[in-house]
Amino acid sequence: MTVIVPSYLGAKLLPTSLGSLARQTLAPREFEVVVVLNGPEDESRTAIDDVRTAFPELRLRIVEASTAGAGNARNLGLDAAAGRSVTFVDADDEVTPGYLKALLAHAGLGIVPVASVADVTDGGAAPTFDNYLSNRLLARAGEVTDPTQIPSSLGFVAGKIIPTAVARASRFDTTLRSGEDVVYWFDVFEAAPFRIRPVALDSDGVYLRHVVANSISRQARSYDFSVTQRLDVIERLWSRPAEEPRSRKLRASFISGQVSLVNAHLRVEPDDHTRVVEDIRSRGLEDAIPWRRLNAGIARDLGILYSFLPYADTSALVAARRIRDRGVVVDVVSNKMGADKPTDWSAGVIARENLDRTFEVDARTAAFEWGPLKTFTRRALAKVAEWEDEKGLYRSVYSRTMWPGSNLVAALLKLRRPEIRWIAEFSDPQLFNAYGQRRVGQASTDSLWKELAAGLASAGVDAPADRNIPHLVELLAYALADEIVFTNQHQRTFMLDYLPEQQLVERVLERSRVSHHPTLPESFYHRVDGEYPLEPGLLNMAYFGAFYATRGLTEVVEALKALTPAERTKVRLHVFTSDPATLSQELEAHGLTDVVTANPYVSYFAFLELTTRMDVLLVNDARTRDHYDVNPFLPSKWSDYAGSGSDVWAVVEEGSILSTMPTAYRSPLGDPGAAVAAVRRMLADRGLADAPDLTR
Length: 696
Known about the structure:
It comes from Mumia xiangluensis. By secondary structure, the chain is α/β, with parallel strands linked by helices.
């Protein structure tokens, strides 16, 4: 056996470490010690000579390294090893007398023995096993187990013995300034998977780790050591193939361990989070990071979002994009939307960089029923109080409402703690729907109503006399929120036009901003490989959402029916909808099965990928002219289409926000002739238009 001892300016340390090796119960002829001197010259040679004099039977060799660095020293030690197996002992540590004999006794074919580690302090106190390396090892002492069950066993270079040939097959990464032992042991495992056997304590096989401040492995916290060097290690691990499940599991555990060190830094320096995220993105490590571990315990901001991921609806997806766009870590309270609500777990990556804790309230999903809203409010506030007891008061609360419960909870937090900053977003008007109808739902005159009404009164605003919930939700945000977000200018104008209190209108204008739904970066449009087949040489258009041949997009249906037979062979409209079977029946009735294909909804990222491959994306305004002077809605799909790189055909209401967007094609709602002309322009732009008939 060869014991490799790297030493950097270790003159004062080597007598202890080498002395412990000289006192081994294993016969001296059974092992050698290779000391690798890898730093400036000091009295290390003299110290080694003194050990030789004191222990003449100890087989001791010296290797000198021209380049400093623990990884380089260990590689040189491996090259010089003459034994059939090797182990490492750091120069600032020592081992118990039965250490080497115990390692050999616990070794076996494909089995790596792992010694427990006891920490030794300078104060003379007894060694303690209370550390991350030994806590789980002691519970499994003597048992053969998989290292993926105790990954910390491989997070420390020493305390193990492996065949020299296996050890030499991998090399320590000399470009890493710390953590090279983690990468090395992963490479060893991936090249020759093994199991481990923790060494039993009664065998006297203990590694004694001296806790010395500012040693290479025990440096003080800093951005460089706690973040940059940890990301260096993660980058190396992530670059490994890890083709086998055990390797992938072990790699994930090692990465998680490195991320825990980054999290420890962020708990002290939470303002560094943005910098950490930027560094992770610059390295392309977004998918490598267990973000919940990175963000654990650091959120100082809160989101109250009635619908949130993994539910696959517009409200949840937009809320996730808002959180990503804002760039601060948040805890989120949302509502359990029911088993019938579709989910899309893959969409969780949208906000993962900025999520700490999430919690789903189990309350019945009813938009304007006071009972379920009270249940949601009470349980959400209880969870927020629990979190604040653990981590301190939140700085801000963000609520996004189509569902009113979000604003109710945020308003109560603001009333009870005025210093919290409330950011309230309206996805659409609460009081009126797309058909000009006034939404209704009456609150009870209970303690919740009275607290909210009193809060409005303190702000100089009267609560709705009819206790109408949609009206209440709007007034609470207008009167109490520090920032109010509208998704388009027409929405703000419309909602304020029916607000009679001019002073309140002025407050909203002062505190509000208009912000369209965020568009995700280009990389999100290519997270999945496209499987949906598209026939080349055609005009491939797509529509995502409810599509009816008899109502809604009638001008598009009529336009497709009006195309010439030759034109129809060149056009395909791919519709992705919730009820493709019914749509197929309608298409057959209208003779459009050769032009329009009905498909079920796809996952969000499959949808984004499809938008990049279509020639044209179809989006339409809601029809509001019969009810409103100005269209207060902007289709949510616009923000997704805007990042696709594909042309967009907008079927618009005159003067709408959608009509002002930079779309390649535009035609008015209810005008089949203009729709036909738009399709023919699309064909012409792609060289697919019919040749003119020169015989006429």
